[in-house]
Amino acid sequence: NELIKRNAGRDTFILGFGGGVVLDITGFAASLFKRGCRFGFVATSLLSMADASVGGKNGINFGNLKNLIGTINQPEWVVCDVKLLNTLPDEDFKSGLGEIMKYSMIADKNLLQFMNINNQKILNKDFDVLNHLIKSSVNIKAGFVVEDEFDHGQRQHLNFGHSFGHAIETRINIKHGIAVAKGMLIATKISVAMQICNKSLIDKISALISSFDISLDYEIDDVVWQNIANDKKNRGNKIRMILIRDIGDTIIHDFDIEELKNIVQKI
Fold first, then answer.
1. What is the CATH number of domain 2-82?
2. Is there a shared CATH topology between the 2-82 domain and the 89-266 domain?
3. What does the alpha-carbon distance between residue 36 and residue 55 come to, in Å, rounded to a whole number?
């Protein structure tokens, strides 16, 4: 309605200035309005700089389910200025760190080590350190997107932590990256229970999450399971999850929901 009121046309350039939600809405609207308008992003949160502004996914929630409706359409450009992060509330900053942790876990031992070594500088929002985190995350994600833009194979590994993360985020309304951090911990525990990774990996990821003052606590109730069952990543009647064998080594695994429930009860 707003675009119509402002006499926007197919030659209109739409700018998204904000965090992940704003950028998703901008990309989604630009993808659909008059069959597509040009658009670009100025990312203002750590999560949007390191993750949401990259890759072309533009999703909106529907029916209390996360990102159920969306498009894949790339912005013409993205601007990230870390000085904007000085205005960011602590919970939103931690949310961005959750996604950056994910990139370190699925693809880059050096990034994981960098986060551990520079923990205090990260929390103090050192610009040089934050620029390194953002560039590393963007490069990792771009590598997956170039190989599989439309999410049919390799790009799905970016969903590590997102199955339970999305379900918990929707259930208790916490920040996305914080929910993803909890989801990564759960996925790692499931991986250990299935004997595909060493138990020491739980300690590594727990220490990393805790070092940024993100709680390790979570609750998996019937509503979370309902959200899991309705996850858009599922295939047929199977729950699709990304499990981990080691830092930089993740796999796609499909579960029957009762099988998954039995495993989760034991962790």
1. 3.40.50.1970
2. no
3. 17
